Amino acid sequence: MAQEERFNLVVIGAGAAGLVSSLIAATVKARVALVERHLMGGDCLNYGCVPSKALIRSARLVHEMKHHRDYGIAKVSYEIDFREVMARVHQKISKIAPHDSVERYTQMGVECIGGDAHIVDPHTVRVGDRVLRTRNIILALGAEPQIPPLPGLAEIPYLTSENLWNLEELPRRLIILGGGPIGCELAQAFRRLGSDVTQIEMAERLLPRDDADASQLIANRFASEGIRVLSRTKALEVKSREGTSTLVCEGPGGQRLELGFDKILVAVGRKPRTAQLEGSGLAFELNPNGTLKVDRYLRTSHRNIYACGDVIGPYQFTHTASHQAWFCAVNALFSPFKKFPVDYRVIPRCTFTDPEVAQVGHSELSAKEAGIDYEVATYGIDDLDRAITDNEDHGFVKVLTAKGKDRIIGCTIVGHLAGELLSEYVLAMKNNIGLNRILGTIHAYPTFAEANKYAAGVWRRAHAPQWALGILAKFHAFRR
Fold this sequence. Notes:
This protein is an alpha/beta fold. It folds into three domains: 4-145 and 271-334, 3-Layer(bba) Sandwich (FAD/NAD(P)-binding domain); 153-269, FAD/NAD(P)-binding domain (3-Layer(bba) Sandwich), CATH 3.50.50; 355-462, FAD/NAD-linked reductase, C-terminal dimerisation domain (Enolase-like, domain 1). It is 32% helix and 24% strand. Strands 1, 2, 3, 4, 5, 6 and 16 form a seven-stranded mixed beta sheet that branches. The protein starts with a strand and ends with a helix.
């Protein structure tokens, strides 16, 4: 019989949520075990954020070379070697991997254990022949690609955001199912690298969670780059015959479409990885969307078992998983003496298309749904000096404020480096800084960050006290 090992905390899953949870525990000198059955770093490092951004950067360089004359360069010669592009992607994963490695976390005091974790009871986890007794458990199980029940799909080697990185040849004809962030980022990247891309979206438009003006700007850019977007279109089945594949769709008004392809990428969303809990002997309460149900302290239906990251939602972002992980670890280690409710008030997000779409707080869409009375100040980045010099003069900064006040309740930025520009508004919202103080802050010239100050200026001009300006006009007239 295996001897029991005692821990203050056992964390299951070594993605962003699990890594941060275990590191916090080790930092405060708790004995913590981190169990991972596959790859340290989870989806973000191995399949998501890191490889996709590496691919996007290569594709952007190709796009810039194609438009060399816009920069005054008469001739450019290049050749795309897709194998080399993918080799670069994996090289970037390898370079970042030490940040999330067993060696690094072991040095910081985390006991890393490889293998499948089986929850025996609320205080016992078995990994192979090891039995871990613990006061608390954190579930950081992550999520995986959602695969629709599309007839014929399982009969072909379809792509997802997980196996995509094994491609060795550029698909000549690529169909992408899904018009959300993952689908849009990859559609543009593969098109720029040379694929003939068709994107299928059941909703009215791309990026349906974002405001319509942001979505339209991306749609216009996609059209200019030759991406075929079919919105209000439903995939019906995949037909395969003698080495050829066809996607049968139903378009607006019942129009039947048959689209040939070489590869098909499924990007219709992600589902939480709760399947490994089924053999635990414990029943966990789930939400209607399949995520683990937790309270405001991130406790599951078993009060000493916490959960964070994509397995609980409601935001499937690496930075949100890390944010939740702090609350998980602190609540698990110091309850019942002190508990902290998770704070979702200021959650930023960014879609890394070109231009980027970044958002924090309320969009106009969500503000209307919530019945919030708001005002909008919009600054067009086409007027920004630095954007003009860099041929990036497109997009906008749109700030939502409480009616009659400079208090920021949301911001959407569409443009070059939008994700970077958004940070100023995230900081402002987190610390109750209004637009007047952003306007009064010196921004270096010429920078893209000036767009934030100019957006604040739009708000200020709209709220200028006309009565006071009238008095000043008379004052200066008197003194002339």
